[in-house]
Design brief:
The complex is a heterodimer of chains A (about 425) and B (about 325).
Chain A: E1 4-6, E2 9-12, H1 16-27, E3 32-35, E4 50-52, E5 71-81, E6 86-92, E7 103-105, H2 108-121, E8 125-127, E9 132-137, E10 143-148, E11 154-156, E12 159-162, H3 169-173, E13 185-194, H4 197-204, E14 210-217, E15 225-231, E16 235-243, H5 244-250, H6 254-263, H7 268-271, E17 275-285, E18 296-297, E19 300-302, E20 311-312, E21 317-318, H8 320-340, H9 350-357, H10 359-366, H11 370-374, H12 377-395, H13 406-416, H14 421-435
Parallel strand pairs in A: 1-11, 2-3, 2-12, 3-8, 5-14, 12-19
Antiparallel strand pairs in A: 4-7, 5-6, 5-7, 9-10, 10-11, 13-16, 13-17, 14-15, 15-16, 18-19, 20-21
Chain B: E1 8-12, E2 16-17, E3 21-22, E4 29-30, E5 36-37, H1 40-56, E6 59-66, H2 71-78, E7 83-88, H3 98-102, H4 106-117, E8 125-129, H5 140-148, E9 151-161, E10 169-175, E11 180-187, E12 190-194, H6 206-214, E13 241-247, H7 263-271, H8 288-301
Parallel strand pairs in B: 1-6, 1-8, 6-7, 8-12, 9-12
Antiparallel strand pairs in B: 2-5, 3-4, 9-10, 10-11, 11-13
The chains are: A alpha/beta (about 425), B alpha/beta (about 325).
The complex binds flavin-adenine dinucleotide.
Flavin-adenine dinucleotide binds near residues 36, 47, 241, 306 and 318 of chain A.
Chain lengths: ~425, ~325
Amino acid sequence: MAEVTEVDAVVVGAGPAGSAAALALARAGRSVVLLERGPFPGSKNVYGGVVYGRVLDGIVPRWWEEVPVERWVVRRSTMLVTPTQSLSVDYRSAAWGEAPYNGMTTLRCHFDAWLAAKATDAGARLVTSTVATGLVRDGTGRVVGVRTDRAGAEVHAPVVIACDGVNSFLAKEAGLLPPAAASHHTLGVKEVLDLPAGAINERFGVQDHEGVDVEILGCTRDIPGGGFLYTNADTVSIGVVVALPQLAASGVRPEELVADLRDHPGIAPLLRGASLREYAAHLIPEGGYDTMPELVSDGLLIAGDAGAMTLAAGLWLEGVNFAIGSGDAAGRAAAGALAAGDCSAAGLASYRADLEGQFVLADHKRLRKAPALVLSERVQQRYPGLLCDLAEGMFTVTNPTPKPGGLRLTRQVAAGHGVRLRQLAGDTLRGLRIFG
Amino acid sequence: MTAPTGPLVAVCLRVTDLRPEVDRLTGAVRRDPLGVGLTPADAAALELGLRLAETWSARVVALTAGPSSVDPVLREVLALGVAVVRVPDGGEDDGHGYTAELAGDEGGLARTLAAALAPFGPPDLVLCGDRSADRGTGALPAYLAHELGAAQALGLVSLSAGDPAAGRHLVGERRLDAGWRERLRIPLPAVCSVEAAGVRLRRAPLTGVLDAADRPVPVNRSLPVAAATGPGAGSGGAAVHLGGSRPFTPRPRVLPPPAGDDPRRRLLALTGALAAHDPPTVVAPADAAGAADVLLAFLARHGYLPEADGDAR
Ligand SMILES: Cc1cc2nc3c(=O)[nH]c(=O)nc-3n(C[C@H](O)[C@H](O)[C@H](O)COP(=O)(O)OP(=O)(O)OC[C@H]3O[C@@H](n4cnc5c(N)ncnc54)[C@H](O)[C@@H]3O)c2cc1C
């Protein structure tokens, strides 16, 4: 007979979603066990590098005074590239460099450990190096706990919150998440490069704790995707995110794409002399709103990447804030259900309603068509080159030939890229509808 | 306070960052509290301590000198049902400055650890890893043996309880040059240090881990830096007896008898003499792509990847 521990709630995964859920439950006075398979929270977690902290305002007052930050993002660049060109829209804000800040680069091993410590300080019990191997159900099929890999010991609780990340085995076992659908996932591959703080400041035009976030389109050959470059204190993170089926079909190795990006003429000078510290890869659930699983069943809630909540809508790649927002909501919903003595799907239903009412599902719903547009053939394959050529046409001085008119140039360049002006206008309108 | 009775096994652990960063230019060492852990040798010492304590129905206590940042690792030890005592680090705890002052003074550290052990009564056995990962001279166990008046046997690759009919003692082995090993009969009390060989630290039960998560790690703040000299200090322990040395012979593996009528075939099957063997592969390519290639090729060769996937990676 397996050893059994009884608690009010068990949370699986001490990523941002799990720690936020455990924190909310512990603050509600509930006994909660937070299971993490890694040796410490954040030890197994891969991401690009920017966390948007507004979601923390209601959870850890004045969080910016204690969060383990690398740099505060004060510059945000969107870069379109072809192998030999680049066109950047660069935004800089002094306000982002002051409290209450906008975004920060932070390392997950430090950030996740910090957030998990908030949960344990509030009374949650964190158990590391322990895998939840499956759900425990009662005779009616309702989830009543999880099994672990510590000699099969079980933790029983009226409510389980699955925060076990992308491709959640628990959500699959519960029948809420379909077997992995490659087309709903992308692969993120990144390198962290050592670069002295002084070189970062000089090359990226920042100082002290200021940092830069660069999102890049057009850098993934024929594979739909994008790239990123973030500055940490004395390292930079550079990587690509690419659609899985097309990556597999292309035969291209993902690290070749990162190498391409590193060597791009617009980026190589920024990284001169940098040396490789680590590399990593991880799946991202990028399907958006239409691919999310059911988030609630009897005795079970799903939050964060386990519920496909990363917002990957071209202009944004945000997952940690969505994980924290959903984890916090799940923790609060579970605490409410425990207080009411009803942890059935009906008793836990306030979770989904809460998410609909705040950014987590509101943003996803509004931007539900964004992944398809951003990953479409024209946006991926034609527009970066088209816009770069347009800029080249505008800014190349052709004396004694007179400057071309804007419309003629646009028509000419568009035709050169196999795009009709009607398609360009249609896509612009589509983009305005989605993002506007 | 009266000392508790019954045999006592103590294990000295040095908990430190196992993968510190060393600045290539200045040699400055950067330690990360998240990287702290037990070295494999310390983990082996703890496991051997637990096994011997089971054999002797003994109590086990783990000792360490270090800052409070090592407490998460000590809680894992608590979860195994082991009593734990930490002697604090001055910088972070209470100004005693033990580890700072004791760095490089293993005699002083041994005196402090021996004094920290005193409330538990005299130990029958003290186990250590063969050397700590950060300073690593391997001399601490010898100082401890001197301090406790115990026999010492250092750098063992195996350790077990000897036949009780011949009096309570231990049997240990250690490496000699050229692949030889010597076998030691170790009287008690003893201080033994062990290599990370042959044993793996058990996992704590979940209830133990949950229990330990709530408990503070006991800290002994009362020790003077040059702590009182242990009871048998300086007297030296009983002599370790060398039972002989021999070349290392791995334990025989029991194989099922080979099938077949022809003795030659049976012999060939048994020895694998004429069978084609893959030479062992050492995987140490310089970059990620090379490593991934080698691993995928291996998996494909051994049938773990479906044929069609071979090229569609
Ligand atoms: C390359 C890349 C770049 C990204 N860039 C950004 C970015 O810049 N900004 C941003 O906000 N987001 C980014 N994201 C997304 C972000 O990483 C995720 O959305 C976020 O980590 C989700 O948090 P989570 O808590 O839901 O899951 P995770 O962070 O994946 O945490 C899940 C936790 O569960 C544990 N676990 C899993 N299974 C078990 C089990 N069975 N038992 C016990 N524990 C288990 C894991 O060890 C892990 O700690 C990026 C992702 C990738 C891959």
